[in-house]
Write the structure tokens for this entry.
Amino acid sequence: MEKHLFKELDKNLLCIKEFFGNSADYFEKEILILGHKAALVMCEDLTNITNLWQVNLKPLNNLKSDFTADEIFDYISNRTTIPFNSQPAQTFEKVLFFLTAGFSIILIDGVDKALVAPAQGYPARSVQAPEAEGSLRGTRESFCDTGRKNMALIRRRIRSKGLVIETMQVGSVTKTEISIYYHTDFYNPKMLEKVKERLNGIDIPIVTESGFLAPFIDTTKGSLFSAVSYTEKPDVLSAKICEGKIGIIADGCPFALIYPFTFAEHFYTSDDYSQRPYFVSFTKLMRYFAFAVSVMLPGFYICLADFAPENLPQKLVFFIFSSKNSTPLPLFMEAVLIIITLEIIKEAGLRLPKAIGHTVSFVAALIIGDSAVNAGLIGSAILIICAVSTIMSFVVPSFYEAVIALRIIFLVASGLWGAVGFAFSFVFLALNIAAVNTGKNSFIPGFTAENMGKLTDIFLKSSWRTLNKNDKRIQ
């Protein structure tokens, strides 16, 4: 139960000070407003002192009237142009929420409510170009770490009356504000209700980014894939909201969650809708091919080379066997060793400072690979296969984690049981895709007459006139 503010100023200040303890950033100062005792409370590092003085405090000094404490509060709130929040804080929970969000609080002795001054001035990263989602013709804006700025980026793109942005707090310790985006003309009310229920049921102490929320929103079990996706681009989230999807952004994180997300949508990019249909169709098919190659190529190569070499061309067989005979490890173990080494190099390059990260990754891969082949530790053929597979996995970056796991599964199964293991791995992949639960909307649409238009757009790109006729919004 929320604790209501007292009318006594000293009691209110004592309770607020008890919450902050001896924190260096806590600031309070007793002042007089029209001869009545009052107090200004704020967190110094979160408030712009200059704006607070010029916009809120200086006009208070010019007020001249003989009012009681309640009349002063009503007069300042409702009958002056001084920009205080229209809804005052009436509980300690609200006061603490506003203080930690950068607002300043003015308490008046004899009044059990607090004036809230919007004078935030905390340090924040500005809107910059996206780093993880590059595009040729799309917007150069990405989400920033401030939740309210992110709201403005979406509101500027969707100006119709149906856009709704709701907020709530999650994390028993961090009290992180998260915002939920949806459009009333397109959304599924039952789905939104379920998402809110899952978010309200989160019982963890710390939420510092949107990724903490994904496991609670997506209830899929037993699958390497997820019905929740990420984006750092406001235009992508705006488009998905207009398709009936739900967006979620945590304050302090520049990535938004999108739910539900289908399997085929991972193969779309924002450039697909600004380029010619024939070229986009080619690139879409190329992405599907790259996904298949990144998952299956090492396992398929091991399956043929170790269990069915008669199916390979004669010159290739001689090349493979000469490579195998010149190395001390079995082909299967070579592939495992190379894949793990490539992942270690990638991880090292990612964690190092950018100034040396790319150089270290390039030099390490070049020197280690060339030296290992020249020393006869690994074969050049399997090195090329694993390198191509790794490069292909970056074509669809949102599937990267699942691709790594699936590649190892295909490799191990094919190395141990040959064609049977490869076939079982393929069935495992299909079951993982089919197991993803997105509620009413399937992760993969069925082959029905109703979905034929959608199935065509999954693999090919239709013109805007055709897309206009086939409404893909979630109803």
The longest strand covers residues 26-33. Residues 277-434 form one domain. Residues 33 and 60 are 7 Å apart (CA to CA).
